[in-house]
Design a protein that fits this description.
With 446 residues, the chain is an alpha/beta fold. Helices cover 34% and strands 20% of the residues. It folds into 2 domains: 28-87 and 406-441, Urease, subunit C, domain 1 (Roll), CATH 2.30.40.10; 89-394, Metal-dependent hydrolases (TIM Barrel). The protein is built from 15 helices and 17 strands. Strands 1, 2, 3, 4, 5, 15, 16 and 17 form an 8-stranded mixed β-sheet that branches. A 4-stranded parallel β-sheet has the order 11-12-13-14. It has a 3-stranded parallel β-sheet with strand order 6-7-8, with helices on both faces. Helix 2 packs across helix 4 (149-158) and helix 13 runs parallel beside helix 14. It starts with 8 loop residues before the first helix and ends in a 5-residue tail after the last strand.
């Protein structure tokens, strides 16, 4: 007979110590912890977990596993087995404060609309915030508002006084006073008066730019926005408004204050100069040359094409008072935008999802993903643009954009398979959690 090896007291103590250490490493869960059970999880980096179990406690994700065995004893289970989980999405280009009351005789842009204080705008525009959540977007970068109404919205949401996506805002965008055909500024908020124009982002000289950037930062802006060309609404002109030197001054001033900057340019020349100047993101630009695309890929400059927003303006031309000819111009620009995105993808440029949502476009934020797939992305690539890439744009890659331990519990349940069909993301959102709180529940009654 073979003698069994003796188990020493030291070995028993070591085993007991390992068990104790293992238990100690498990995070202590509160009584409110929940286990979310999904058919599968498709994460922002393309990782797929079948029979996914996500443990949420407070506003954070504690663990991600698979099957019943990943549910800690005593933790309540939320049955979402008929759905696929994806991370809460990030729309990196919105204008949340652009709200229209449809008053008779008025248009979304233009004179005659209701004049509201910034506080009033921040209140009525919460309707846009709620519609954005319904698309599965739990975080936005909002790029330009009057009267700092965007800062008021952000702060009210952060304090829990209103329900909306996590907002990172720009305050006033930096602009030059140049004629913009077929467009007028929104009558959304009463402007400040009796103060230098650069306080409101209006630039008349190079020396104004650092002051204007600092004013936005001091007022609470998270990001700086610069309008580097004409182009908005039915105006698809591409005239560059800021020189390379002016763009560089804005970039340098923003970076010196620890802020990122987004530069709007409808055209290739302004886009080229924005990239040369070191912008963190380039918004809208079409017809970018190969050298500029190569530089963007090399620098890590994000391209935010916002292809869908011109589809929106064409579809809603009656509300805006646009002619059929203007709608054809919007369609033609969109085709150039799509082709530029296609070339950017082939060149290895990073893209992020931006809707450029205004007015009635809220609730349609993720339609941009369909155009990204048309431009050559796989559905998984498009999902990455709306999650991981968006988080990187904001400098929050360690907190949002993935379903992973330690990240905010921003989780969306969709009908269908987003790994193979982007429409599951665009049209299939049924349930949304933001920071551990369920903010949208459109599941059918049991």
């Amino acid at each position: 007979m073979n003698a069994r090896p003796a188990v020493t007291l030291a070995a028993l103590l070591a085993i007991a110590g390992c068990i104790h250490a293992s238990r100690a490493m498990r995070p202590a869960l509160s009584p409110n912890a929940r286990a979310l059970r999904f058919a599968k999880l498709v994460d922002g980096d393309g990782r797929v977990t079948q029979d996914a179990t996500i443990i949420v406690d407070g506003d954070r994700i504690v663990s991600v596993g698979s099957g019943d065995g990943a549910v800690p004893s005593g933790v309540a289970v939320v049955d979402l087995h008929r759905y696929t989980a994806i991370p809460g999405m990030i729309d990196v280009h919105t204008h949340m404060t652009y709200w229209w009351d449809h008053a008779p005789g008025t248009k979304p842009f233009g004179p005659g609309g209701t004049r509201r204080t910034p506080s009033e705008v921040a209140t009525v525009a919460m309707a846009n915030a709620r519609l954005t959540l319904e698309t599965g977007v739990t975080t936005v970068r909002d790029l330009g508002a009057s009267g700092y109404a965007d800062i008021l919205m952000r702060d009210r949401i952060n304090r829990g006084e209103a329900v909306g996506p996590r907002m990172f805002v720009a305050g006033y965008g930096l602009s030059k006073s140049v004629p913009r055909p077929n467009a007028a500024p929104p009558a959304s908020a009463l402007p400040a008066s009796g103060s230098p124009a650069w306080l409101r982002g209006r630039i008349t000289a190079l020396a104004d730019i650092p002051l204007a950037v600092k004013t936005q930062a001091d007022s609470g802006a998270d990001v700086i926005k610069m309008y580097g060309s004409t182009g908005t609404g039915a105006d698809t002109s591409t005239t560059q408004t800021f020189s390379y030197e002016e763009m560089k001054a804005a970039v340098d001033a923003a970076h010196a204050l620890g802020k990122r900057i987004a530069i709007h340019s409808y055209g290739a020349n302004g886009g080229r100069d924005a990239v040369r100047a070191g912008t963190n993101t380039l918004e809208h630009a079409v017809d970018l040359d190969d050298a500029t695309l190569a530089q963007m890929a090399r620098q890590g400059t994000f391209y935010v094409p916002t292809i869908d927003h011109n589809r929106y303006y064409a579809d809603y031309r009656a509300d805006y008072g646009y002619t059929d000819e203007q709608a054809r111009g919007l369609d033609a620009y969109r085709a150039r935008n799509l082709e530029t995105a296609r070339r950017a993808i082939k060149a290895g440029v990073k893209l992020a999802m931006g809707s450029d949502a205004v007015h009635m476009m809220f609730g349609q934020n993720t339609r941009e993903l369909g155009f990204l797939v048309q431009a050559g992305m796989t559905p998984l690539d498009a999902l990455r643009a709306a999650t991981v890439n968006g988080a990187e744009v904001l400098g929050l890659a360690d907190r949002i954009g993935r379903v992973a331990p330690g990240y905010f519990a921003d989780i969306v349940a969709v009908d269908g398979d987003p790994a193979t069909d982007i429409n599951a993301v665009v049209s299939g959102v049924r349930w949304v959690m933001k920071g551990g709180a369920v903010v949208v529940d459109k599941r059918p009654a049991p």
